[in-house]
Amino acid sequence: MDTKDLRSFMRVYEEKSVNKAAKQLFITLFNLRTDEYGGSLENRLRFAREVVEEVKARCGKDFPVALRFSVKSMIKDWREGALPGEEFEEKGRDVEEGLEAAKLLVAYGYDALDTDVGTYDAWWWNHPPMYQEKGLFRTYCKMVKEVVDVPVLCAGRMDDPDMALASLENSDCDIVSLGRPLLADPDYVNKLRGGRQEEIRPCISCHEGCMGRIQEYSMINCAVNPQAARERVTAYEPILKDKKVMIVGGGVAGCEAARVLAVRGHKPELYEKGSRLGGNLLPGGAPEFKEDDIALARWYEVQLQKLNVPVRLKKEVTAEDVLNGGYDAVIVATGSTPKVFSLGDDAHTFTAAEVLMKEKDCGEHTVVIGGGLVGCETALWLAQHGKKVTVVEALDKILAVNGPLCHANKYMLERLIPYNGIEVVTGAKAKEYHDGILSVECADGERTIVCDSVILSVGYKEENALYHELEFKVPEIYLLGDAKKVSNIMYAIWDAFEVANHI
Fold first, then answer.
1. Distance CA 31, CA 38 (A)
2. What 3-state DSSP class applies to 70?
3. Interatomic CA distance for residues 320 and 255, integer angstroms
């Protein structure tokens, strides 16, 4: 397409779209036009028709053109999306119109339909976070497949190979589409073809590195794969001489450091005081909707085993161990621990990690102190298991800090909290807890909440005592991940990669 043609095409695009968004043409809730691009379904699909006709005219009738297409909008109201399982009146495109549109789009010349549901008013459908079930578009893809004679693609958390294969065998779709999983592991298909499924690095559906960074910084990356979209600047650095490196801590930062060091040819040894690798991935991955956090911990176990990295579990490292070990370099990745304080009844006050790991029983009625990401996810998990949960948050709203970077994740979690019957008390501070009664100071006075337990979710603090004991005694020592600064999975992994790639 030459410059003149491009300008002409862009003028047509500007004239024929509303805010450059196809949804505002396709859906009557947004499309209030009275010209040939508004009104009937055929008129609302006119722009899509003209696009495929123009492409075919320029590139040839046999040039394949696919369209990402939403069968159903999942809109309850303006800027209000529906939640899974929620009964609501569809204000956007319903399934009946969606299937009719699918048939028209194929008649116009589209060679395949990449099928999903949702709109930007219900963004957690188009870009499903971990709170959505895997393969959530399969039912809708099957509906489309039954009314069209072109290939139907299915995306949407389709990274489970067994589920994907079953979808093909059950004729839910013709092609499985992977987006985020290929950012997490660009060798996904080759590993699957080679029977190395356990080596596929899992996408954890956090959206932190991909959609979140696109929204905020116009950058696409990946939380679990630091090299994604930065392959040149993050290429593995060659080494001149291998080093024996001690890594203290088996969370994501320690595991990633060990992996990168081993790939480059160094000789890392990893020590973890717990009985398994994963660190805060383990309590974080306890809810069923966070299963991929546990999958990531398992992936690191497999990687370190294949790279022949010695892993010593149930070993709490002392300064003497470090100084007498004969190491060329030391990495301290001892992570973080939950912040705690006393409200009076310490016997019935637990950390979120203790409850998530089922070390403590919170009873039937509990109060979560702290409405950040950990607090909200803990509350949601407990409510889904039949517990009565109240969240007490000092700020004026939940997820005000330490929330998900991606709006799809944040908006969905914000709405899942009330949908699951969780009461939220904001602008409030817990004062004391005695005899099953929690006193809370609110802006309009004090209130009491009857509960079996209180769960503290007020953040984490760096566990860096070992580093500070050694920082002037070991010539080459590094502090990584949460032990350096409490953050999230993405920055722990990225920090570890950067340091380990330059030792």
1. 6
2. strand
3. 22
Tokens of 235: 């290429």
Please write the tens of the pLDDT for every residue from 128-160. 999 999 999 999 999 999 999 999 999 999 999
Question: Which is it for strands 244-248 and 175-176: parallel, antiparallel or unpaired?
Answer: unpaired
* Contact (CB, 8 A) for 290 and 284: yes
Q: pTM, whole model, 2 decimals?
A: 0.92
Full DSSP string of 350-370: EEHHHHHTTSS---SEEEEE-
H or E element, residue 313: strand 311-313
Mean pLDDT computed over 163-178: 96
- The full set of domain ranges for the chain reads 13-177, 244-338+461-500, 346-458
Question: CB-based contacts of 91: which residues, under 8 Å, 6+ apart?
Answer: 29, 73, 75, 76, 77, 78
**Could you tell me which residues are beta bridge partners of residue 378?**
none
What's the 3-state SS for 152-190?
EEECCCCCCHHHHHHHHHCCCCCEECCCHHHHHCCCHHH
Question: Residue for token digits 């008390």?
Answer: 425
Say yes or no to pLDDT of 284 above 90.
yes
Mark residue 278 as left, alpha or beta (left: phi above 0; alpha: psi -120 to 50; beta: remaining). Answer: left
Contacts within 8 Å (CB) and 24+ apart, 14-17: 16/46, 16/47, 16/50, 17/47
Which region, left, alpha or beta, applies to residue 221 given φ > 0 means left and ψ of -120 to 50 means alpha?
beta
Q: Are strands 152-154 and 112-116 parallel, antiparallel or unpaired?
A: parallel
- For residue 192, pLDDT over 90 is answered with yes
What is the radius of gyration, based on Cα positions, of the chain?
Answer: 26
Fold of domain 346-458? FAD/NAD(P)-binding domain (3.50.50)
Among candidate residues 292, 293, 289, the one with its CA nearest the CA of residue 132: 289
Class of the domain covering 13-177: alpha beta
Which CATH code is given to the segment(s) 244-338+461-500?
Answer: 3.40.50.720
Least confident range from 20-34, 113-127, 386-400: namely: 20-34
d(CA 465, CA 454): 28
Contact 412, 131 (CB under 8 A): yes
- In this structure, what DSSP letter does residue 431 have? E
Contact 75, 90 (CB under 8 A): yes
Q: Using alpha carbons, select from 401, 399, 380, 390 the residue that is nearest to residue 451.
A: 390
- Sign of the Cα pseudo-torsion (350, 353, 359, 361, in order): positive
Helix, strand or coil, per DSSP, at residue 432: strand
For residue 410, what are the β-bridge partners?
none
- Residues 353 and 380: beta-carbon distance below 8 Å: no
Strand pairing class (336-338; 445-450): unpaired
